[in-house]
Write a structure and sequence with these properties.
alpha+beta, OB fold (Dihydrolipoamide Acetyltransferase, E2P), Multidrug efflux transporter AcrB transmembrane fold, 2 domains, 5-stranded mixed β-barrel, 6 strands, about 65% helix, about 15% strand
């Protein structure tokens, strides 16, 4: 009877989060500020005469003939311009047969209007990639994989529909990110592990680790004099009419938001290990169970902290190469604001990982332990 009840609760939890994910599709989210609609189009022909090549860069524009493939203007042929700024990270060069995104102003006419060609359309490729990942996860992990996929979708929608709009509105980013991490951690852990003692121990340990990371991020971002402007596109936000945003709070919130997944993973590892120990030794004492969780955490925490280091440093590989090519000294390298920001993110995230193991072990000792001898 207990197994049937647990299985029913498991399915019910998955159904609830599936409904919440569906609801998130229709609420909140960033709103477009322009009157133009974004549609897909096929490039029919290209005129590269106005485009000039400057070494590795392009300047000028491309004149395109495009056929709209979505929306109210579907099937109509427009002229479009692709403006090039001599910026390799932003410029793109189209050719016939490409599927692109164009901005169509209200009242645009195919005879007189010239559309703005914005970027390649990557929606179909993204759908294929996500679909392959979903199939692999479901095939390998079965029902647990389906629940993990559901938690992945819920997390992505929650960040895009709730966290981003609230931060854009000027709400306290630290509080928004902390509450969001708590909600996502609760949802993911209890969805994957079900309403079990293992989930309770993992959630409690993870939130204690996140709380410690939050406090340390606030303190050390101030000590390192990091104002948050080092984050990509942060200054563009201010220049777009959002001078009220606190970039320092956004930086701090981003630290424990980005490391919360690894913290959650480690908490679940320790809690799952203690659950197994308790299952094979029902009369184990609380102290022995805490020590078991402690030893499990020691085995995992080393590789997890290195995971954070590799994840962050991989994203800034070209930055490190640029400093190395210029022969910058170690002191100048560490003192650079971009490097200092990554150092704070990596070390603070690693602090949270190291602390979550003993936190989870202690909580698990009280959650799992029997009467002992």
């Amino acid at each position: 009877m207990a197994k049937i009840s647990l299985k029913f609760a498991d399915i019910a939890a998955a159904a609830v989060f599936a409904a919440l994910s569906a609801a998130l599709l229709f609420i909140g989210g960033p709103q477009a500020v322009t009157g133009a609609s974004k549609e897909t189009a096929e490039v029919l022909s290209v005129d590269n005469a106005p485009m000039q090549r400057l070494g590795m860069l392009y300047q000028g524009s491309q004149s395109l003939s495009v056929k709209i493939t979505s929306g109210e203007k579907r099937g109509q042929i427009f002229r479009a311009e692709n403006n090039l700024r001599a910026q390799m990270d932003l410029d793109k060069v189209f050719k016939p047969g490409d599927t692109i995104i164009v901005a169509i102003p209200k009242g645009a006419d195919a005879k007189t209007s010239v559309l703005n060609a914005q970027d390649f359309y990557r929606g179909a490729s993204a759908a294929i990639l996500v679909g392959l990942f979903a199939l692999l996860l479901a095939a390998f992990a079965g029902w647990t994989g389906i629940k993990a996929l559901l938690s992945f979708v819920f997390s992505a929608l929650f960040i895009w529909k709730i966290v981003v709009p609230m931060c854009l509105s000027g709400a306290n980013a630290i509080l928004v990110c902390f509450v969001s991490v708590a909600i996502l951690t609760f949802a993911i852990i209890f969805l994957v592990a079900g309403p079990t003692k293992k989930a309770v121990a993992a959630f409690s340990g993870a939130m204690l680790g996140v709380g410690a990371s939050c406090l340390m991020a606030i303190v050390f971002s101030e000590i390192f004099h990091i104002n948050g402007a080092v984050m990509p596109f942060s200054q563009a936000l201010l220049y777009s009419g959002r001078e009220f945003l606190n970039l320092s709070d956004l930086f701090v919130g981003g630290i424990f938001l980005s490391s919360s997944g690894a913290v959650m993973d480690l908490a679940m590892d320790v809690a799952a290990g203690q659950d197994e120990v308790r299952a094979h030794s029902p009369q184990i004492s609380r102290r022995a169970l805490v020590l078991s969780g402690w030893r499990i955490g020691r085995s995992v925490v080393g590789t997890m902290t290195t995971t954070l280091l590799l994840a962050y440093s991989g994203g800034y590989l070209t930055l490190m190469m640029a400093f190395s090519a210029e022969g910058v000294s170690a002191i100048d390298f560490i003192s650079n604001p971009y490097v200092a920001a990554e150092l704070v993110k990596t070390i603070i995230g690693s602090f949270g990982l190291v602390l979550v193991a003993p936190f989870t072990a202690i909580v698990g000792g009280f959650v799992f332990a029997g009467k002992g001898k």
